[in-house]
Amino acid sequence: MSPRPKKNQQTINLQEAIKDTAWKQIAEYGAPALSLRGLARVLGITAPAIYNYYPDRDALVTALIVDAFTSLGESQKTSIQDLPPGDHTARLTALGLNYREWAMAYPQRYLMIFGTPIPGYHAPEDITVPAATWALQPLIATLQAIFEDGSLRVDRSALMTPDLASMLASWSQFAGGPNVEVLYAALIIWSRVHGLVTMEIGGQMPSFITDPGEVFRREIENIKIQYLNINPRNGKTLY
């Protein structure tokens, strides 16, 4: 007879089973329909057994959000791990393309963290903001490295207002203290790729765009031209 799994392993297995089942229910019925009692029925356990791990629906949703951000962050890190730290163009390209690839591979996770808010759910910022920042950390770190070697073009941007600098400084504490210009660049770059991916996942691209990937790849090139002063004809810097 095989030995019974240790209690800690049983706990981990049940927690993962609950989350895996939750993702399946979200894919089929949508996040607003998520129910702990419904999950218990599918898993063949009592509702109190789930409450031992997740006292209410919001606690489970928060755990799913953190897992989604963790998955995105790990995917971003992996996309650049074999690239030279000084190859800024290659790293920005890899991060941008990976963002779309991850979203296409895990649309429910993407929509959980970036889609329509779940009615009645209020994300605990002390948990979700650090998780979101960690997911963007590969981009932030890459831009900080570009900034430190003098290659990040921020001279073409409008002047930073004190109010905006203050808002970015409050974010900086979660991101390891990068320059506020770096955080602003990260915010704008993320919003540009995020907008295109969200349109694609939501089926909002115009019907004549038969290959959204072409649009996305060109926007990545535009970002590099703007922030790294790249010559679009040969991929080299213009200065």
| Count of runs of 4 or more consecutive helical residues | 10
**Oligomerization state:** single chain
- In the CATH hierarchy, what is the superfamily of the largest domain? Tetracycline Repressor, domain 2
CATH class of the largest domain: Mainly Alpha
**Major sheet details:** none
Principal-axes geometry comes out as globular
What is the element string, with H for helices and E for strands? Answer: HHHHHHHHHH
CATH architecture designation of the largest domain? Orthogonal Bundle
The CATH topology label of the largest domain is: Tetracycline Repressor, domain 2
Spans of at least 5 consecutive residues with low confidence: 1-7
How many β-strand runs? Answer: 0
Task: Describe this protein's structure.
It is a single chain. The protein folds into two domains: 1-55, Arc Repressor Mutant, subunit A (Orthogonal Bundle); 58-228, Tetracycline Repressor, domain 2 (Orthogonal Bundle). It has ten helices and no strands. Residues 1-7 have low confidence and may be disordered. It has 239 residues and is mostly helical.
What's the gist of this structure?
It contains 10 helices and no strands. By secondary structure, it is mostly helical.
List keywords for this structure.
239 residues; mainly alpha; Arc Repressor Mutant, subunit A; Tetracycline Repressor, domain 2; 10 helices; globular; disordered N terminus
List the helices and strands and how they pair.
Layout: H1 7-29, H2 36-43, H3 47-51, H4 57-80, H5 88-105, H6 107-114, H7 125-148, H8 162-172, H9 180-201, H10 212-228
Helix pairs in contact: 1-2, 4-5, 4-6, 4-7, 5-6, 5-7, 5-9, 5-10, 7-9, 8-9, 9-10
